# Entry
Amino acid sequence: MSAQFEHFPEETRQFLAGIADHNEKAWFEENRALYDTGYVEAGKAFVQAMAPRLKAISPEVHAEPRINGSIMRVNRDVRFSKDKRAYKTHLDFWFWHGEKKGWANPGFYLRITPDQVLLGTGMHQFDKDTLDSFRHAVVLPRSGKALQAAVAAVRAAGAYEIGEKTRKRPPRGFEADPDRAEYLLFEGLTATITLPGAVAFAPGFIDICAQHFAATWPIGQWLKTEL
# Structure
């Protein structure tokens, strides 16, 4: 694909719509060329185009243009899932921080379906140690106020959703000032926006992604600095 990548091709939409309707190996094998063009090659081109823009936001971010790098594999792990469909029906990307790829550090993520685009910054679910560090950071005045400032900056930049508020009650042993006590109900921290799927297939998509990643980065920066 051209180095001047601006949006995903029609083959991406066709593959994602097709695998949603025919989630079986026979269809996948018959349409492997569509997968190669619309999923693998388009994904690589997107990562290559996105990498310098992300590094301008956060120089330490990792962007690897390969399957199981920044491009999530299409095969589902069904070992522990009630859903036994063999293939994902979306195209996911993950740009991470830290020496080893994983979810233990904040990153930028993007999900594309024919109907919807979801993108943002953060950590969807903290592990036990990170959750404990997060709660202490909420409680402490300096880091707690820095969190409030980061959230305020993201909200001022656009209609972003701040997640992941999953608890109904604060955890035992933690108490924060009323103006930030709500964050003790969070077990992850993300800033996301949902867009119509059509934007992924229209000129200017690479610019849209860069703008939203930059706008949500204060959340990622806080996580990277404070945890």
Observations:
- The chain is about 40% helix and 15% strand.
- The chain has a mean pLDDT of 96.
- The longest helix spans residues 32-57.
- The longest strand covers residues 186-196.
